[in-house]
Amino acid sequence: HVQLVESGGGSVQAGGSLTLTCDVSGIFSSNCMGWFRQVPGKEREGIAAVYSGGAGVYYADSVKGRFTIVRHTTEKTITLQMDSLQPDDTALYYCAVDSGYSALVGMTSLGLMRESDYDNWGQGTQVTVS
User: Fold this and answer.
1) How many Cα atoms occupy the beta-carbon half-sphere of 49 within 13 Å?
2) Are 113 and 107 in contact (CB under 8 A)?
3) Most confident of 5-9, 23-27, 101-105
4) What mean pLDDT comes out for the span 54-80?
5) Percent of the chain having pLDDT more than 70?
6) Which of 6, 45, 42 is nearest to 126 (CA)?
7) Residue 94 in contact with residue 36, Cβ under 8 Å?
8) What's the pLDDT at 41?
């Protein structure tokens, strides 16, 4: 059983930075874990993932070059450092973990983060950029 808790959200001015942290309880050695974000009325967007025990990393084009995902094995956390934040980054951010292999297949075979592949979700943390 895996439980996820996000923290680090808040309000920041455009051009600023925030670091989100996902605390993981239970099994940490998941094949794939990452971050999604969602704006009301929009589909949940996968923005960053780390997989294959940390050997692989994925970023959506919308955040590539600005966001950095790190898997912290000892602390059992996944962090998302967000730099050069823009108003379009305003969203509710979720961390997610796939307890199986579906998300890993999506990453390695399709280069995609598919929401339906993840079966463990945090409660979300709000990021507001103005």
Assistant:
1) 29
2) yes
3) 5-9
4) 95
5) 99
6) 6
7) yes
8) 95
- The residue type at 15: G
DSSP-based three-state secondary structure for 54: helix
Q: What is the per-residue pLDDT for 47?
A: 97
User: What pLDDT does 34 receive?
Assistant: 95
For 20, 51, 78, the CA distances from 47, given in Å and listed in that order, are 13, 13, 13
Average pLDDT in the 35-43 region?
96
Cα–Cα distance measured from residue 51 to residue 29, given in angstroms and rounded to the nearest whole number: 9
d(CA 49, CA 124): 16
* 110-125 residues labelled b (16+ CB within 10 A) or e (exposed): eeebebebbebbbebb
Q: Give dist(CA 6, CA 121) in Å, integer.
A: 10
| Residue carrying the six token digits 């967000």 | 82
Structure token digits, residue 6? 């996000």
- Distance separating alpha carbons of residues 57 and 70, to the nearest angstrom: 9
